[in-house]
Design goal:
By secondary structure, this protein is mainly beta. It is built from 2 helices and 12 strands, in the order E-H-E-E-H-E-E-E-E-E-E-E-E-E. The strands form 2 sheets. Strands 1, 2, 3, 4, 6, 9, 11 and 12 form an 8-stranded antiparallel sheet that branches.
Length: 205
């Protein structure tokens, strides 16, 4: 046991859980209409509110958002998080995802429907303005990489895995080296309700 204590101040939380993939979800997803992303490195469903067509999956994702916000983050019951939009990303062989964040939302997430081996990890990137320890002007070297000093953290997708994270958290997707297509559902959340009190009340409808 270490002879000291470390207070982990202001960590960035990424929620991870599992929703078993139903065969009918995957078959429906395969038959949606897709178009090439403007970045030309993947396909995206034409419908940007795709979970309205898969209502039971939508209900599951809403439940996991509630677990994350209420049971882990302990957000007040004066506000509710609602699903803004959702879409399917189809990555064929050699498709990938550039570093990006999701604008005009508070929480974002992804649910994996089909993930062949070697179809690409999701990578979370520490923003250069997020100085948890040392400023970006110093390129510190470490003997051991851990949660506190890493600049990039990768997770291996698996069919059924759901991730929810702050929308401002930058992330990317590795190249799909598989010969098979990979399917994932991305989504965003915002909130409605009342925050603050007296002259600082903010009501979001």
């Amino acid at each position: 046991m270490p002879e000291f204590k470390v207070h982990e101040l202001w960590p960035t939380a990424v929620y991870e859980n599992n929703i078993d993939v139903k065969h009918e979800w995957l078959e429906k997803v395969k038959n949606f209409d897709y178009e090439l992303m403007h970045t030309k490195n993947g396909l995206i469903s034409v419908n940007r509110y795709i979970l309205d067509e898969i209502s039971d999956l939508k209900k599951e994702i809403l439940n996991h958002c509630k677990k994350f916000t209420r049971l882990y983050m302990h957000t007040t019951d004066k506000v509710d998080f609602y699903l803004q939009n959702s879409w399917i990303v189809k990555h064929n062989k050699n498709h990938w995802g550039q570093i990006h964040h999701h604008a005009n939302s508070l929480l974002s997430g992804v649910y994996y429907l089909k993930t062949p081996p070697n179809s690409g990890n999701i990578n979370f990137h520490k923003n250069c303005l997020h100085m948890n320890m040392f400023p970006p002007s110093i390129r510190m070297e470490y003997d051991l990489i851990n949660y506190y000093n890493v600049d990039q953290y990768s997770l291996r997708p698996k069919a059924g895995k759901i991730l929810i994270f702050p929308a401002h958290l930058e992330h990317s997707i590795d190249i799909n080296k598989s010969d098979n297509d990979r399917y994932s559902c991305a989504f965003n959340f915002y909130l409605k309700g009342r925050l603050g009190k007296q002259e600082y009340i903010l009501e979001i409808k």
